Amino acid sequence: MIAWRRALCAAAFAAAAASAWACGEDAGDAGDAECPRSNPECKEIATVEAGAQAVVKRRCVDCHGRDLSGSLTKLPGVADTIQGEPVELYPPNLTNDETGIGTWSDEALAVAIRSGIDEESQALCPQMTHYSQMSDFEVYSIVKYLRDIPKVRKNVPRSVCPPTKTKEQQGSTR
Hints:
Blueprint: H1 2-22, H2 48-57, H3 61-64, H4 106-115, H5 136-148, H6 167-170
């Protein structure tokens, strides 16, 4: 029984090491490695075209607008919190302008999309869908697409979704 567990552990370790190597994340020359095109999980093969398709599939434009520059008016029909505090959702500017995501790192964008945590380590409003199971390929394709679309200078108000983001914080800069 113990030999079987050791064999299973060894096989799991070998699979994990092979996966990390295939995606260029080993401790050696990680910068020189390329992910094989047959592996759809790797960020190294992300494309603008796949990002454009993912933005449509994930319906990002429904809230952030056709040009993804966000909205200066709050989304209608958003319920108050269960404590009765008003919620004001302003979909942010997702273009590469400094009033949007221009100062965010690619990794910070990937974390926001997947985990709902912004570049200031604050939770995004819970109404924003989070895609925790999104592959590296898809999330970094979206990031490439957002970096590629035209910049739009638009100062979108900060959303209010207590207790995460309060009315007092709304006046502060993004």
